Amino acid sequence: MDGFESTEGVILIAATNRPDVLDPALLRPGRFDRHVVVPNPDLSGREKILRVHMRKVPLAADVDPRVIARGTPGFSGADLANLVNEAALLAARRGKRVVTMAELEDAKDKVLMGAERRSLAMTDEEKKLTAYHEGGHAIVALSVKGSDPIHKATIIPRGRALGMVMRLPERDHLSITREKMLADICVAFGGRIAEELIFGHEKVTTGAMSDIEMATRMARAMVTRFGMSDELGPLAYAENQDEVFLGHSIARQQNLSEATAQKIDQEIRTIIDNCYGRAHEILDQRVADLHTLAKGLLEYETLTGDEIVALLKGIPPVRAPYEEPEAQRGPGPSVPQAGRPRGIAPVAPEPQPGR
Ligand code: ZN
Description:
By secondary structure, the protein is mainly alpha-helical. It folds into two domains: 1-113, Orthogonal Bundle (Helicase, Ruva Protein, domain 3), CATH 1.10.8; 124-312, CATH 1.20.58.760. The chain is 45% helix and 3% strand. The protein contains eleven helices and three strands, in the order H-H-H-H-H-H-E-E-H-H-H-H-E-H. It has a three-stranded antiparallel β-sheet with strand order 2-1-3. It is flat, with a radius of gyration of 24 Å. Zinc ion is lined by residues 133, 137, 191, 208, 211.
């Protein structure tokens, strides 16, 4: 950084994902004067980024970037470019000349939940179990206060999961309430409880592994990082792992007494037990709804949040009769891809099996 005259008008810009491992000499005053942290874009940022990427593809009149932006909290700029690209590929595969909202919605689901793996052979028994597992998540999500609304529930395997209930926040979460964290833990247990309720103690599967991990991680964070345990009070008992990337030292020691460590474990246990109990109560009461929803999932495979609410009121979803893909009809597709050169295989390979 030495050797530049201040009159020479040279501006030096550098970027890193790991400011924590930079040589401190590089960060001394007079080296880099401004440090700008770039987080993922907010709602209006996402809308603007979408508009930039959408310039490269022909769009139908019904496309509203703001709606897509609202449905993609947490997406990075690269995720959004990927979404537009996937939508363009889908439109081309469907033989359309322009990208419509339908392609953008499907592309959003693909980016959010992974590609559908319709070829994965699931036995009827596995399908049924998955339908009740996802149904359990959905029923609890509909019943607890503070849960985000359901976007979609599906028993079509996507990515690594056999099925999935996606919830989308109505706005960007800048912070999360205690109520929402507890609700999310309840929802996480809905799957396993539904399995056990319907198929019995011996038949529960490993499918709940990631649910259990998520719930445990969240309960631990509530106690050790967010000061949400009355017993332990507002103290930080653990380093925020996320912020390792923002310059905190990795090697910082945390000294806990044996007694405190035990108390932490107890508090995590209490949170988990309470949430598990609450989810169990909900599913005990709404077991008829669980049957309705699971049967709906087995029949229609994917249900939107609105369709689930309607189905539980006895209104079945309306589906267009199956149509042959229109790829063969008409002149060739004219939809170019955005952000990625032509010629790259449009379908990502998915080698990982399992749940
Ligand atoms: Zn689950």
